[in-house]
Design brief:
By secondary structure, the chain is of the alpha+beta class. The chain has a single domain, classed as Peptide methionine sulfoxide reductase (Metal Binding Protein, Guanine Nucleotide Exchange Factor, Chain A, Beta Complex), CATH 2.170.150.20. It is built from 3 helices and 11 strands. The strands form 3 sheets. A 6-stranded antiparallel beta sheet has the order 5-6-10-9-8-7. The protein has a 3-stranded antiparallel beta sheet with strand order 4-3-11, with no helix packed on it. A two-stranded antiparallel sheet has the order 1-2. Strand 1 and strand 2 form a beta hairpin. It is globular. The N and C termini lie far apart (69 Å).
Length: 186
């Protein structure tokens, strides 16, 4: 009986959380306060990449991004969604080249830093330029993770974990929808 009461309480809590999230979505998210310090209102006007170049940030409203990106890419990059594992063709991409932001074209990763993590998402042990990626703490699933975003446009990329291979020990777990692949020219 005690377990039944606990289970019932948990289910009621879960249903109320889901209902609140749906209400927020129907209201355009207005009722949900942003915890991301890199939302459009908080993006710096520029950043300096690892080569010392000044890169101007791209700040657009979600309405503009929604017109420019397809539905699935918008969901992942602007609503911080996650694509289903093993669905991105970039997960198996082995050619030499660069992986760029699908929204703004900023270079994020190189193919020689890509590895098969077995997770179903494109994974890298390092970024092409650490300054091209912003990091923020994400509590979306109940515990702290490090969220990754494009430094130029603020688009959600994925997360970084400390279970990757040498030399960094990092695993940049990236949504394929957040990336475009640019094949190296011979």
């Amino acid at each position: 009986m005690k377990h039944l009461l606990i289970l019932t309480g948990f289910l009621m809590f879960a249903i109320s959380c889901k209902s609140q999230k749906q209400d927020n979505k129907q209201m355009g998210g207005a009722a949900e306060a942003s915890t991301n310090k890199y939302d459009a209102d908080n993006m710096p006007p520029y950043f300096i990449n690892g080569m010392g170049d000044t890169i101007k940030t791209i700040i657009k409203s979600n309405a503009v991004w929604e017109k420019e990106l397809d539905d699935a890419t918008y969901y992942v990059m602007r609503e911080k969604g996650t694509e289903r594992a093993f669905t991105s063709p970039l997960n198996k991409e082995k050619r030499e080249g660069l992986f760029t932001c699908a929204a703004c074209g900023l270079t994020l990763f190189r193919s020689n830093e890509k590895f098969d993590s077995g997770t179903g998402w494109p994974s890298f042990w390092a970024a092409a330029d650490e300054n091209n990626i912003m990091k923020d703490t994400d509590y979306e699933i109940g515990y702290a993770r490090t969220e990754l975003m494009c430094a130029r446009c603020g688009g959600h990329l994925g997360h970084v974990f400390d279970d990757g291979p040498k030399p960094t020990g990092l695993r940049y777990c990236i949504n394929g929808l957040s990336l475009n692949f640019v094949k190296a020219e011979n």
